[in-house]
Structure to design on (1647 residues):
């Protein structure tokens, strides 16, 4: 039965094509790459189709196998799982295609082969995580996911920063897993079974405990502030298509976990909503603020993942508040918007990471301020990246707008509820607006400094755009951004189907009102395009037979402008960062200019992540100090060692 | 038949003393193979012992026996390669002691009489002392001295404890042979006071040998000074033997309805050991000591699980088996590292991923396994233990447990990352022959397989072993 | 039908009203000032011209003006002028409109960054910064309007008598809203005291410096776009300060246009009597608008119930 | 009337005091040897099992405990000419005082355990306890490695007393096994002692503190 199941077939194919290279193919580099990436692609395709079919037909299936005699490995796919599977398989598919030309260092054959092994493991484990139907299965897949992604993070371990990133990630994922395990433990302590079913019967206090523990555990994987510290280190360290997967879908497994636990507990109090909402707002705003301050393009994108996780959480939180307030429309708008944003973020974030990867691959640098004018040499990369930027800023007519639109409307519904709900929804709406504005500032910076203007360095000049397998996925994703942005109906429907699986007690969700909303968006988008086209026509008409000449940029009277005089990313973001000073301490370093003929000088700036700063001070150092105080116990003197034994006996005899 | 399993290696060991140095290597492997065959036979047939008063084939004994003989076989294979690479004076003493060590440990697993078990365990100390002193250095001498003295003192207390148990029989007017198996039946009539006293002494005594804090003090020294195959044996199976004594006594306690008493004590010692391990792992400077402390941690985990009972005890047994497999492979890897870098300091190592790739795979795999990542079995064991702890409502204890596990992981991971990836400028002094890594791979693979599929007979044996300790789930 | 006519009328009138501001400033400056039709002349002149493009620029530089103009047109289609229902309207169009304006801003900035000119970069940075707070303010106001009307569309807020309804529901706090909206108007359209369109020092400009390199029809598009944007905000203010509707379309239109004039004069007066803030003072100024809106919303929704 | 065993045991207690007070190793060794002899014949006097096997076993035990084990240590000293000081951590007088207190305490607590044998030999349990703790004490209070080994032997003697005279369970064969273990242990310790002497030219455990964190 398992064999013929398309889902397991897909997982099997993926795993197989990951193991294959290491077994015997690694001697033939190109063949190995081809087999691996094609195999993974094929597997993902099967899985994707299966997931979409399951989602559209709303089929639940479950399957389980005996495990260690007394237990079972159980899998179950409902709307929620299917929705996440869709995102996972879509992104992994394109990442696999992308990897073919990206991993082109023939010197590191074995390493590439190993990379494909863990790549496939990661994809497979993610797919299994979102279908796992009991604690053992879940933890098993979860840990494998963490482990495999860790190895992908330290792919380039020669770089010291990557090693640090890998270590941080390792610690966070393990501690997070432990916290999740604790949450499960609380459930188990009441339900006395490894299945999830018993969770609903827990007493209130236990539910609170479980929810908080789970939120911390899953939040640390999803990159919720302040558990996001590892994220901006780990994501840039990995190869770009891996960053795309990690940022695009792996952290979403954390979101899945939160949603799943919420559904299992059936704990419909406003409190859960408030927790999620607040966490979401903080992550959203701080994430984008820190992103503004970054000089490393992949690090910047990583921080934007924190921001978008924040937006998703705001949506989910509004949904929870809606459920608690008995307001189905608000609830579904919130959850639907959040879920849809999961898909959207997966799409445009992986697009952006692939674009960044292209730039990194061709220029060899991730530093924003030494790039520039790349779009002239890389038109497709530039254009797709532009589309991605518009989408991530939530601007119409692209997909980012749709989900934010739903969340906004949900928020407005909440604002009408009054009291605490009113206050929090109000804050949610405002922070969404602020996030949008900041994101716009951040991505105009990236576009302007990296892709537009003039090259600021050699690296940025000598670039080309080769590698079909790298370009194709970007084009596809950009297309997806536009399609979802203009015709969101069907996708919103999928998101709502996924939301149905949360057992909010509304049964079948009537799609009509939501379809009307999305229809409006389509209308607006089409209107926008018609106007744009007509203006275009007008413009063409106006320029008919006009003289169009080219010359240098107007230097405002300055006659010898150089490329290095362009506005840098740091200065672009400077004034906004000042505004957020207390939250994002900005450390500047530039020697003063002295004398009539000042020496060559420089300017460095670095934005500190307060969470990172305090983690060191509040947790790490005290723990180390505390344990250091005990090290004298092992002092090497045998007399006292024997003393310990005697002590142990004497103490124990008191209890006899 | 039963006695043969430990008599054979004993004879082989005595022979080895008089053989020319290098002749011991094949003997080692052959004995290992024969021993493995015998133990499997034993497992299959479960025969009656020749002296049923003293020896018996018990499920828990069989489990440890199988682990011991599998490990010894693989370690013996590794040892042949190791002895080639590392020069050891009077090698025949080394091999001879290895074999005697094997025989004594086997005796522990098969002994049923309380006193005989004590004799066997004390004998393991004596047989393994020469192994630790193999390198003839001042440090190894000190390690041996501490090992022998501390363990002897500790085990002396265990003897006293055994005497107290017999005393509890006198006071309770029960007249059965002084064997664990026969005690199980009459446990109810034993005098609880003396039984408890006996348990306490036995726990501290065998706990010393098992490496429970605060009696663990000898362990890091011995493990770091002994040559790696010996360390692998010490950490992989010797600790299990000591644990076996505690386990059996604990069973008697459960049968006597004193399970809570023993359980609480076991859990406390477990937690203390884990915390102690955390203390010394964080800023460890030598990788072999690091592994030694990790053994203390795992013994703590096992004690904790045993104390909880139920599915926790099951988890503990799984941890026990997998810890033996994984930790011994780690120690074997440490042997390669020592040979490769010629230095036991962590700071002197690095970039193993590129310099010694084969060892790296085994080493990092072992690390992942020991810190509870699937697909290695300790993961499932720890999961059961934690779940059971929650089930029995020891929230505080399990909180502490989980926290210290995290701390230990953080410390351990830092060192392992250093060894595996950090830059270092040294030249590797050996080239890794496949025989120096295949034993590790075999061990890890076994652990991987056992994580997903436990043979029916093995499972049944575990269940029988746990039958009375509130097992069953 | 009327709405379409009004839409066209709005497009036609927008440049005129902008000229009013110039007149007022000239008056305060004791000058005669340019004719009221100056903007039409400029537009026509620009449309006749050809263009010069910097070698640094790409297609984005050409798309920018079109998108910003397009956004402005689209927005106007949803705006009820003189209390008459707009051409189009649906639940949630406000959000769409604000984000369309955001889209326009994105492309204006992108076009500016395209020229590789440090000054335009500087202007772009400011253009990206200040509107963030404005959006927060606008959403604040939206929440107030939504809770009062239960609708999320401009039509519901500014058609016929609704503005009067706001005054009844919210009362005095609505004054703050008007004030906040006016500040937003000044900021979004980069008027004094946030930005000085008339200055000659590029270092201190925001909007003007960004369009330095545009020329010909492109520049015309930008100019027209900014006129319409100003008209859009002015309309909202107008409807709030003069919510009365007689019911007869023509009369309403007259009142509306008159009030519009008042608003533009007010802008002109502000520009004449105030100096431009130092750049680091501007955020505080804009933030006051947010504070006002926040205050108004919370007061009228939580305490005046 | 005083049971002969008790008089012997009194001497044992005395020997403990001597071993605490003496600064010289040979004295210590002699004391331990004496204890070995006594504890091995006590059960014989206790009167149970007056069989041939019993006699033989008692004699064998006496030979090993009273002669074999001390001899190992003595030879170890002879062989490597170790200096005869015990290098106390706790001074002799303090030790002596501690010894006295120990005996008193032991005599005080032992009636608390209501064991059948107490009634017969009042001094049996106190002696056992004293020997045990005294051994521990020597282990912790003497820096000289040999003194520590002797302390260990003293402990073993104490345990033997408890084992043989309080529970009639263990068969001789088993007890013999235990005895052999102890013997082998002491022999190995003796070997280690010699190596220590050779390595550090001293048996002061102060040299053995290098392995630590």
């Amino acid at each position: 039965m398992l064999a013929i199941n398309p889902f397991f077939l897909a997982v099997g194919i993926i795993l197989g094509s990951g193991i294959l290279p290491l077994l015997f193919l690694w001697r033939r580099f190109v063949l190995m790459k081809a087999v691996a990436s094609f195999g993974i692609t094929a597997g993902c395709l099967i899985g994707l189709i299966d997931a979409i079919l399951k989602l559209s037909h709303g089929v639940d299936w479950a399957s389980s196998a005996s495990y260690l005699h007394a237990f079972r490995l159980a899998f179950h796919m409902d709307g929620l799982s299917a929705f996440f599977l869709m995102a996972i398989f879509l992104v992994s598919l394109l990442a696999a295609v992308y990897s073919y030309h990206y991993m082109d260092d023939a010197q590191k054959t074995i390493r590439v082969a190993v990379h494909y092994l863990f790549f496939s493991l990661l994809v497979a484990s993610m797919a299994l995580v979102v279908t796992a139907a009991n604690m053992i299965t879940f933890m098993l897949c979860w840990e494998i996911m963490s482990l495999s992604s860790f190895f992908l993070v330290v792919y380039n371990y020669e770089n010291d920063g990557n090693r640090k990133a890998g270590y941080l990630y390792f610690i966070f994922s393990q501690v997070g897993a432990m916290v999740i395990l604790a949450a499960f433990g609380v459930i188990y302590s009441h339900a006395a079974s490894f299945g999830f079913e018993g969770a609903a019967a827990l007493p209130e206090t236990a539910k609170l405990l479980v929810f908080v523990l789970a939120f911390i555990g899953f939040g640390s994987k999803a990159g919720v502030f302040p558990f996001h510290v590892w994220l901006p280190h780990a994501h840039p360290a990995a190869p770009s298509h891996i960053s795309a997967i990690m940022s695009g879908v792996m952290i979403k497994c954390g979101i899945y976990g939160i949603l799943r636990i919420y559904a299992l507990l059936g704990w419909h109090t406003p409190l859960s909503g408030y927790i999620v909402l607040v966490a979401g707002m903080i992550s959203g705003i701080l994430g984008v603020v820190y992103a503004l301050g970054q000089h490393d393009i992949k690090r910047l994108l990583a921080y934007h993942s924190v921001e978008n996780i924040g937006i998703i959480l705001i949506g989910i939180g509004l949904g929870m508040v809606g459920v608690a307030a008995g307001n189905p429309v608000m609830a579904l708008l919130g959850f639907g918007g959040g879920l849809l944003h999961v898909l959207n973020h997966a799409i445009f974030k992986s697009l952006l990471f692939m674009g960044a990867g292209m730039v990194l691959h061709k220029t060899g640098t991730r530093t924003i301020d030494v790039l520039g004018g790349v779009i002239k040499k890389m038109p497709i990369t530039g254009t797709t990246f532009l589309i991605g930027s518009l989408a991530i800023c939530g601007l119409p007519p692209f997909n980012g707008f749709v989900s934010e639109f739903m969340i906004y409307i949900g928020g407005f519904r909440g604002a009408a509820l009054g009291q605490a709900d009113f206050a929090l929804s109000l804050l949610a709406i405002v922070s969404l607006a602020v996030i949008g504005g900041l994101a716009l500032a951040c991505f105009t910076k990236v576009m302007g400094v990296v892709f537009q203007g003039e090259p600021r360095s050699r690296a940025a000049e000598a670039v080309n755009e080769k590698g079909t397998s790298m370009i194709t996925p970007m084009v596809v994703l950009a297309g997806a951004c536009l399609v979802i942005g203009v015709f969101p109906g069907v996708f919103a429907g999928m998101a709502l189907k996924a939301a149905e699986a949360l057992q909010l007690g509304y049964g079948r969700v009537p799609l009509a009102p939501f379809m009307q909303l999305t229809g409006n968006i389509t209308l607006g988008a089409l209107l926008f395009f018609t106007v744009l086209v007509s203006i275009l026509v007008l413009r063409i008409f106006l320029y008919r037979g006009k003289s169009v000449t080219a010359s240098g940029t107007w230097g405002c009277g300055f006659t010898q402008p150089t490329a290095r005089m362009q506005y840098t990313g740091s200065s672009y973001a400077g004034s906004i960062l000042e505004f957020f000073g207390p939250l994002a301490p900005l450390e500047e370093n530039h020697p003063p200019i002295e004398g009539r003929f000042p020496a060559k000088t420089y300017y460095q700036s670095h934005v500190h992540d307060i969470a990172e700063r305090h983690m060191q001070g509040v947790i790490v150092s005290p723990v180390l100090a505390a344990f250091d105080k005990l090290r004298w116990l092992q002092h090497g003197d045998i007399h006292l060692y024997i003393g310990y034994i005697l002590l142990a006996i004497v103490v124990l005899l008191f209890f006899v | 038949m039963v006695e043969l399993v430990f008599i054979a290696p004993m004879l082989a060991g005595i022979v080895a003393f008089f053989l020319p140095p290098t002749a011991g290597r094949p003997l080692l492997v052959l004995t290992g193979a024969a021993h493995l065959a015998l133990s499997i036979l034993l497992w299959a047939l479960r025969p009656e012992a020749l002296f049923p008063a003293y020896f018996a084939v018990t499920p828990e004994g069989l489990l440890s026996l199988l682990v011991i003989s599998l490990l010894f076989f693989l370690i013996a294979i590794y040892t042949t390669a190791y002895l080639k690479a590392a020069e050891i004076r009077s090698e025949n003493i080394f091999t001879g002691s290895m074999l005697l060590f094997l025989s004594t440990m086997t005796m522990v697993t098969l002994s049923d009489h309380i006193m005989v078990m004590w004799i066997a365990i004390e004998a393991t100390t004596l047989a393994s002392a020469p192994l630790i002193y193999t390198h003839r250095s001042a440090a190894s001498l000190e390690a041996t001295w501490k090992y022998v003295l501390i363990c002897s003192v500790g085990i002396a207390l265990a003897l006293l404890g055994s005497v107290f148990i017999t005393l509890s029989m006198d006071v309770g007017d029960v007249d059965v042979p002084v064997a664990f198996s026969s005690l199980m039946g009459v446990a109810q009539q034993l005098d609880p006071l003396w039984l408890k006293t006996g348990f306490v002494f036995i726990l501290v005594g065998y706990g010393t040998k098992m490496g429970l804090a605060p009696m663990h003090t000898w362990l890091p020294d011995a493990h770091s000074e002994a040559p790696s195959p010996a360390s692998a044996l010490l950490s992989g199976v010797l600790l299990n033997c000591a644990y076996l004594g505690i386990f059996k006594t604990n069973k008697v306690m459960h049968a006597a309805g004193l399970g809570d008493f023993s359980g609480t004590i076991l859990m406390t010692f477990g937690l203390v050991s884990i915390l102690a391990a955390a203390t010394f792992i964080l800023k460890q400077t030598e990788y072999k000591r690091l592994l030694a402390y990790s053994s203390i941690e795992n013994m703590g985990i096992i004690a904790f699980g045993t104390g909880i009972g139920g599915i926790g005890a099951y988890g503990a047994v799984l941890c026990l088996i997998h810890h033996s497999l994984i930790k011994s492979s780690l120690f074997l890897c440490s042997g390669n590292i020592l040979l490769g870098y010629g230095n036991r300091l962590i700071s002197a190592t690095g970039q193993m991923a590129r310099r010694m790739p084969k060892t790296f795979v085994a080493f990092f795999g072992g690390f992942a396994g020991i810190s509870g990542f699937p697909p290695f079995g300790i993961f499932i064991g720890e999961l059961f233990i934690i779940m059971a702890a929650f089930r029995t409502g020891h929230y505080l204890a399990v909180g502490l447990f989980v926290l210290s596990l995290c701390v230990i992981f953080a410390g351990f991971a830092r060192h392992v990352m250093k060894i595996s990836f950090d830059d270092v400028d040294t030249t590797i002094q050996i080239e890794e022959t496949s025989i120096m890594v295949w034993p590790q791979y075999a061990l890890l693979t076994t652990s991987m397989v056992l994580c997903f599929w436990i043979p029916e007979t093995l499972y049944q044996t575990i269940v029988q072993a746990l039958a009375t300790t509130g097992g069953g789930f | 039908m009327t709405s379409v006519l009004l839409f066209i009328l709005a497009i036609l009138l927008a440049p005129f009203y902008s000229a009013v501001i110039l007149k007022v400033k000239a008056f305060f400056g004791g000058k005669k000032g340019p004719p009221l039709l100056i903007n039409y002349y400029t537009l026509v002149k620009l449309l006749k011209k050809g263009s010069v493009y910097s070698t640094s620029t790409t297609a984005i530089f050409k798309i920018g003006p079109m998108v910003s103009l397009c956004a402005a047109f689209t927005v106007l289609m949803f705006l009820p002028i003189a209390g008459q229902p707009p051409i189009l309207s649906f639940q949630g169009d406000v959000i769409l409109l604000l984000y369309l304006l955001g889209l326009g801003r994105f492309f204006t900035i992108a076009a500016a960054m395209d020229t590789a000119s440090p000054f335009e970069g500087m202007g772009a940075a400011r253009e990206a910064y200040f509107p963030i707070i404005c959006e927060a303010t606008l959403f604040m106001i939206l929440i107030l309007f939504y809770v009062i009307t239960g609708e999320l569309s401009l039509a519901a807020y500014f058609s016929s008598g609704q503005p009067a309804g706001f005054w009844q529901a919210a009362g005095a706090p609505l004054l703050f809203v008007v004030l906040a909206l006016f500040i937003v108007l000044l900021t979004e359209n980069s008027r004094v005291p946030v930005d000085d369109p008339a200055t000659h020092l590029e270092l201190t400009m925001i909007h003007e410096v960004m369009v330095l390199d545009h020329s010909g029809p492109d520049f015309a598009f930008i100019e027209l776009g900014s006129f319409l944007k100003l008209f859009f905000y002015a309309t909202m203010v107008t409807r709030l300060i003069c919510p009365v509707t007689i019911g007869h379309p023509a009369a309403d239109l007259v009142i509306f246009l008159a009030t519009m004039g008042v608003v533009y004069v007010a802008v002109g007066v502000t520009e004449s009597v105030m100096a431009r803030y130092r750049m680091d003072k501007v955020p505080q100024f804009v933030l006051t608008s947010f504070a006002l809106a926040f205050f108004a919303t919370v007061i009228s929704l939580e305490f005046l119930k | 009337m005083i049971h002969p065993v008790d008089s012997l045991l009194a001497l044992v207690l005395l020997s403990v005091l001597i071993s605490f007070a003496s600064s010289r190793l040979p004295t210590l060794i002699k004391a331990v040897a004496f204890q070995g002899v006594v504890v091995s014949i006590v059960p014989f006097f206790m009167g149970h099992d007056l069989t041939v096997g019993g006699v033989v076993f008692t004699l064998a035990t006496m030979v090993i405990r009273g002669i074999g084990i001390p001899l190992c240590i003595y030879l170890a000293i002879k062989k490597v000419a170790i200096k005869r000081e015990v290098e106390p951590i706790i001074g002799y007088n303090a030790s002596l005082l501690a010894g006295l207190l120990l005996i008193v305490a032991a005599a005080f607590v032992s009636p608390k355990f209501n064991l059948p044998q107490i009634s017969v030999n009042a001094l049996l349990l106190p002696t056992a306890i004293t020997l045990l703790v005294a051994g521990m004490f020597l282990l912790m209070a003497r820096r000289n490695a040999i003194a520590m080994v002797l302390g260990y032997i003293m402990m073993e003697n104490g345990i033997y007393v408890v084992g043989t005279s309080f529970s009639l369970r263990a068969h001789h064969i088993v007890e013999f096994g235990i005895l052999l273990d102890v013997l082998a242990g002491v022999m190995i310790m003796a070997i280690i002692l010699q190596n220590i002497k050779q390595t550090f030219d001293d048996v002061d455990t102060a040299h053995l503190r290098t392995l630590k964190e």
Notes: Chain A has a mean pLDDT of 93. Chain A touches chain B through 53 residues (CB under 8 Å). The first strand of chain A starts at residue 61 and ends at 67.
